[in-house]
Amino acid sequence: KMLCGRKKSYFAAAVCIITLTSMVTLSYLRLQRLSHLPKIIQERSRCRGKITNGTITPLKDNRTFIISPYFDDRESKVTRVIGIVHHGDVKQLYCWFCCQPDGKIYVSKAKIDVHSDRFGFPYGAADIVCLEPENCDPTHVSIHQSPHGNIDQLPNFEIKNRKAETFSVDFTVCISAMFGNYNNVLQFIQSMEMYKILGVQKVVIYKNNCSHLMEKVLKFYMEEGTVEIIPWPINSHLKVSSKWHFSMDAKDIGYYGQITALNDCIYRNMQRSKFVVLNDADEIILPLQHPDWKTMMSHLQEQHPGTGIFLFENHIFPETVSTHVFNISSWNTVPGVNILQHVHREPDRKDVINPKKMIIDPRKVIQTSVHSVLRAYGNSVNVPMDVALIYHCRVPLQGNLPRESLIRDTTLWRYNSSLIMNVNKVLYQTVL
């Protein structure tokens, strides 16, 4: 009996402790939620503040850089600001919303979510997320370190994606960070024309700098309506590394802020593109079983319902190993690589996983890194190599391999006649 009584009292104590812990946790979460709710701080007749149009805007602390705010109602009604922050120094930020027509200024405490893939650099991509005021659809927001101050002194950013749109395109390619006085003109044009053959209608390029000749080519594609250029002067604000990891080059941020650009590109195209393709200008996702991306993606979506992220394996076609087929004399004067002459790929390395690039449904992605999505609503699928692979023509990774150890893969040649004709048209209007 005594043993039973003791057991009962232990059980009652455990129930009490669990109940008390739950109540404390719930109270804490409620307080946390309340601390992030918008509060009116000013009432005025109209909203002022300087509207900012630059791509990268530093705040006064010079530790926070705002790229662009986006409306996101997939979970609750929030403004999600894509930015770059110093992971250790930026602890507190506030969104200042101006509600029209009553002119009330609301302030919300931001949740600062620094992306996990920072690769050791002090600065990284961040989502600065604020709950929006009820009964108000703010069109602009200001970001500040304090809930107090004068909104007239703060930069004002337009909140994009406020209005729902119908998709204007099926595929948008995001090319992050064109830098290093980029001059691989021939390969760039070939990639662009391959994208178009495969079904791309839009290519968004975050441009840091490129050669004068490349500028001419970009101008042609902009006028054609294919390319959208987002200026990316990140080195005006931070010491940038051209390496992906801090241990290789100890600067402020890695690879010209590539991850931030990719995340911005996803949100920028969330409402206007059915799919967003995240790859570099020297990479082409080549379908092996389908003629184009639209047919391939329809097939993949049928096979994998509810999937929002499709990962494709990267394969190196070294530019040091070439074939004499498609040696087109007029192309020899154009700087850059002729991809049609590089059809030997490196074999897989033992115990080395090939990196992947992605075709995603942007509405299912919350945060992305370069080779995988960090947070999403849908599942991820690795697309088998017999369905598609990434043709990546660049300097070799296995430079010591003899030619006979490489795998001859002429998949690209399927498109040769259309590709040559289209590339010639662009060259004659731009370079030649």
Automatic annotation (TrEMBL):
It is a single-pass membrane protein. Its main location: membrane. GO terms for molecular function: glycosyltransferase activity. Keywords: Glycosyltransferase, Membrane, Transferase, Transmembrane, Transmembrane helix. The chain crosses the membrane at residues 9-29. It holds the Pfam family Glyco_transf_92. Signal peptide: none annotated. It is found in: Membrane. The keyword Cytoplasm does not apply. InterPro entries: Glyco_transf_92. One of its GO terms (cellular component) is cytoplasm. The keyword Transferase applies. Its EC number is 2.4.1.-. It comes from the Eukaryota. Belongs to the glycosyltransferase 92 family. This is Glycosyltransferase family 92 protein. It comes from Oceanodroma tethys.
